[in-house]
Amino acid sequence: MPLLEVNNLTKRFGGLVANDRINIEIEEGEIVGLIGPNGAGKTTLFNCIAGFYTPDEGSVCFAGEEITGFPPERVCKRGIARTFQLVRVFKGMTVLDNVMVGAFSRIPDADGAREKALEVLEFVGELENKDLLAGGLTVAHKKRVEMARALATDPRLLMLDEAIAGLNPKETEEAVELIGEIRRKGITIFLVEHVMSVIMPISDRIIVLDYGKIIAEGLPQEIATNEKVIKAYLGERYRAAS
Ligand SMILES: Nc1ncnc2c1ncn2[C@@H]1O[C@H](COP(=O)(O)OP(=O)(O)OP(=O)(O)O)[C@@H](O)[C@H]1O
Ligand SMILES: [Mg+2]
């Protein structure tokens, strides 16, 4: 049984079909990359899975249970955590408190939540910043805090929406390393990225969206040479380089 199953999911905004009959299966332990041009519907799909939007048609099943239309906090309790394309930390709260918010989704007492948050902050490399206000951090640090907040909910599936966008080369390398470590913990990862040199090597499988539809799905090397994908997204220059 797949960990995540998206069946025939459609999401419309007025006349615009942002997700058009999407079918996806993700197995436990996989890293699956989602790519496609701007406006293809990647974030919308994440929002439908995570309960921020209710799909107009179709269903989302997680660990064998239908979760379609569940509000975000219920989806989170089932084991799906996510980060946001435009980083969203609680700016006026400390780094530690930000991550405790995640921990509280499962651990009701403050001491337990603090312990969990400290453990996750150490894991992502942000422990030394625990007492700083999250709003004052650089983007790279904010993104790590956001990832820590997601991990503190003890997810089985972590969805990362452009976790690497806007990072410099060194920060990118660290983020890629962290994603590898998250997977080694046994957490399944579904990620959106535009940086091909990042998403191709870390993904087991890639799904390509264009105008709300899946136009290709396969191993990274298959996707890199797929004519439809080159036309819609990667471009001829990518083919020449690869
Ligand atoms: N809340 C909304 N209301 C109306 N239209 C929306 C809404 N959210 C997204 N859209 C539209 O749906 C389409 C898909 O947007 P989405 O943000 O999912 O794309 P994306 O693949 O994540 O793009 P990007 O790579 O730029 O992040 C776009 O045309 C967008 O303008
Ligand atoms: Mg997006």
Descriptive report:
By secondary structure, the chain is α/β, with parallel strands linked by helices. The chain folds into 2 domains: 1-76 and 157-163 and 187-242, Rossmann fold (3-Layer(aba) Sandwich); 80-154, no CATH class. The protein has 10 helices and 10 strands. The protein has helices spanning 42-50, 72-78, 95-103, 110-124, 139-151, 169-184, 196-202, 220-224, 227-234, 236-241; strands at residues 4-13, 16-26, 31-35, 57-62, 65-66, 80-82, 157-161, 188-192, 205-210, 213-218. The strands form 2 sheets. It has a 6-stranded mixed beta sheet with strand order 6-7-8-3-9-10, sandwiched between helices. Strands 2-1-4-5 form a 4-stranded antiparallel beta sheet, with helices on one face. Helix 3 (95-103) crosses helix 4, helix 3 runs parallel beside helix 5 and helix 4 packs across helix 5. The radius of gyration is 18 Å and the shape is globular. Adenosine-5'-triphosphate is lined by residues 13, 16, 18, 36, 38-44, 85. Magnesium ion is lined by residues 42-43, 85, 161.
The CATH superfamily of the largest domain is known as P-loop containing nucleotide triphosphate hydrolases
Oligomer: single chain
The number of domains: 2
Structural class: alpha/beta
H and E order: EEEHEEHEHHHEHEHEEHHH
Set down the secondary structure blueprint.
Layout: E1 4-13, E2 16-26, E3 31-35, H1 42-50, E4 57-62, E5 65-66, H2 72-78, E6 80-82, H3 95-103, H4 110-124, H5 139-151, E7 157-161, H6 169-184, E8 188-192, H7 196-202, E9 205-210, E10 213-218, H8 220-224, H9 227-234, H10 236-241
Parallel strand pairs: 3-8, 3-9, 6-7, 7-8
Antiparallel strand pairs: 1-2, 1-4, 4-5, 9-10
Helix pairs in contact: 3-4, 3-5, 4-5
The structure holds adenosine-5'-triphosphate and magnesium ion (MG).
The site of adenosine-5'-triphosphate has 12 residues, from strand 2 and helix 1.
